[in-house]
Amino acid sequence: MTHDPTNDRPSIAELKAVAQPPEHIARYNAEHWAGALYIRHLSIYATRALLPTHITPNGVTWLMILVGVVGAFAIPFGGLVGPLVAVLAMQLQILLDCSDGEVARWRQRFSPAGIYLDRIGHYLTEASIPIAIGLRADDWSLAQPADVGGYTVLGLVVAVIVLVNKAFTDLVVVARAKTGRPLLDDVAQTAASKVSGIAAVRRAAGHLPFFRAFVAVEASLLALAAAVVDVLRGDLLGTQVLVVVMVPLALLTAAGHLLGVLTSSRLD
What we know:
Layout: H1 12-19, H2 22-25, H3 33-50, H4 57-72, H5 81-107, H6 112-137, H7 150-178, H8 188-191, H9 196-205, H10 216-233, H11 237-262
Helix pairs in contact: 3-5, 4-5, 4-6, 5-10, 6-7, 6-10, 6-11, 7-11, 10-11
């Protein structure tokens, strides 16, 4: 479909045809479940509202980064208020994450910088959330910024594991580029393990997706659930248990991811 990328007031139908092509929405790894369920239905309206502002696609990505990091570090504050802010912020972040690409596709403005900033946004947000949960578990506050302890350390450990785990995905692209191999199609077949036992374990894990605990949307919901327990009990046990449980789950997630990459066709 041809369109005028300088048109800042397209109809929803025109914009959707260009900004949400089926081949993009159907990508195996790139679309969060919330995107298909409801965010994409909202983001197209946000994108239409953003176009007349002349904000660049990278400008939208910067907003996404800001919302994600600020939202994550709201978790330690205000009883349930901070975690609720974090949950709403992660919803807004994923909406902006959809809209930056939609603005880029409508305006036909694509750049490596946009992909780079998008990756930075997810790295920062998903590392910030466990740190913020650790700070909450230690009852940290701005009035006592030095009042951190073991739970904050555990949150930092989880954050490092999350970053390493995310790097496992991006390093596939690096390894293939350095050996002159083309980019892989984002389909299930390329991610499947060639070792039958490992493939079976990965399929079983799909029925109990604990690895999603380290994705921004799900992590913020877990932080809120833990905060509800805190409020009901009148202490911080819910958040403290969450931090402790996240450590082995993060290790298991990263180990499984690495093994999955090494036994798949992604490095062939």
